[in-house]
Each structure stands twice: as structure tokens, then as C-alpha cells.
Design a protein that fits this description.
The chain is of the alpha/beta class. 35% of the residues lie in helices and 23% in strands. The protein has a single domain, classed as Alpha/Beta hydrolase fold, catalytic domain (Rossmann fold, 3-Layer(aba) Sandwich). 38% of the residues are buried.
């Protein structure tokens, strides 16, 4: 279902992937610095989640300014929270690369503003912890303030997220967190000798099982 989400005096293009049965939880998903919501990884994950009963709303927000991207993400969260068509108990924010930084920023700001627990967790696909070859400047400030569960899915050969550095940041985080390493994958999740469909199957199944665990915990 295609929708246009109000954002200031503009609109963001978005698509709902809707499960057959009514969903009580959803995922909001966005792309990295390049591309848009039709990036194949996002389309694949959205379809997988919907086929397993989780509503997924993916949206496009062009722009390389992280503050602007975060504001757009927040507008999408508000839109879904007040939607009459999909009355959800909670959502998980998810993004690829720069999109996951925007999601982390939104969660940090929302946690400072209210006690509302509509946002249940964060999924970071290829979180860009540092620029290539610039490991001295880490983009970890938002991660250290987050309290809700966080899942990182990263390639062990990601040139923007060195393995030991992400593990070091995770050890300092106060949030419950998990890291799933895709062996030998780069920032774009390409692995020599494996098809992209095969890699996406691993990512999608892992994201879904983590979501299911966290939704089950909410219901206890």
C-alpha cells in the first residue's frame, strides 16, 4: 500500500507491506545515504516480515544531513503511531547504514522527551560506526544513550564498522544488545561466493527471530 507521509510542507514516499492477519507490531525501515526505499535489501526484508505477520513501513528520505534524516524518521513514527488504519501496540525502528544512524538518533531523542514505550527496539543493518579508514572518530554517541533492545547485523569485513570497534561500543551500551556478524560481508553485504538472495535470507531470518523474541518478552 503506497502512502504519502506529511513532513513539514512536503511529503515522504512510503510503502506498507501488510501481513494477511492484523499485525500488532510493526517495523519502520529506511535506506542508507544512497538509494531509496526500493533498495533490494529493504524490499526483501519488508516482504519477509509481512509474510511472517509483521507490518513493515518503508520510506524514502533523500538528503545526506543526519539531522534532517532523523526529523523525517520521527515524522514517520508519529504518522504510524496515530494511524487509524493500523492500530499498533509498538514499533521497531530499522535502517540500513545512514538510515540506522537516523533511527538511533530518533530513539535517543524520543527517550529524552517522553516515557511512551511505542518504540520497542532498534535494528541496525550495516551501522556506519566510522568512515572508511577513519577509525578514530566513532559515531557512537546515540547508541550509548539508548535503553531499548538493539540488534546489529554487520559484515565482518565492513570497511565502515570494524568488528572489534563495534564489539567495544556494544560492551559500553546500557541497552540489551545483540550483534549478528555476516561472515566476510562488506558494507553492502556482498560476500564472495554467496548470492545476495542467500545473504538476505540469513539477514531476514535473523532479524525476524530477534523481533519475535522481543515481542514475546513484551507480552510476558
Amino acid at each position: 500500500v503506497k502512502v504519502k507521509i506529511p513532513f513539514g510542507n512536503k511529503y515522504l514516499d512510503a510503502v506498507f507491506s501488510v501481513p494477511e492477519k492484523k499485525s500488532t507490531y510493526g517495523v519502520i525501515l529506511t535506506h542508507g545515504a544512497g538509494g531509496d526505499m526500493n533498495f533490494p535489501h529493504l524490499v526483501s526484508l519488508a516482504a519477509y516480515l509481512a509474510s511472517h505477520g509483521i507490518l513493515c513501513l518503508r520510506f524514502t528520505c533523500k538528503g545526506l544531513n543526519i539531522v534532517y534524516r532523523s526529523k523525517a524518521f520521527k515524522a514517520v513514527v508519529e504518522y504510524l503511531k496515530h494511524s487509524d488504519d493500523y492500530k499498533l501496540s509498538g514499533v521497531f525502528l530499522a535502517g540500513r547504514s545512514m538510515g540506522s544512524r537516523a533511527a538511533a538518533s530518533v530513539i535517543r531523542h524520543l527517550s529524552q522527551e517522553d516515557d511512551d514505550d511505542f518504540v520497542q527496539g532498534l535494528v541496525c543493518l550495516s551501522y556506519p560506526l566510522h568512515r572508511p579508514k577513519l577509525q578514530s572518530k566513532l559515531r557512537d554517541e546515540d547508541l550509548l544513550f539508548i535503553r531499548c533492545p538493539v540488534l546489529f547485523v554487520s559484515g565482518s569485513a565492513d570497511e565502515m564498522c570494524e568488528k572489534q570497534l563495534l564489539e567495544g561500543v556494544a560492551s559500553k551500551m546500557k541497552a540489551p544488545k545483540k550483534i549478528h556478524w555476516i561472515d566476510k560481508a562488506n558494507h553492502g553485504m556482498a560476500v564472495k561466493g554467496r548470492t545476495m538472495d542467500d545473504v538476505m535470507e540469513e539477514i531476514n531470518a535473523h532479524v525476524f527471530s530477534w523481533l519475535r523474541e522481543n515481542i514475546a518478552r513484551e507480552h510476558k
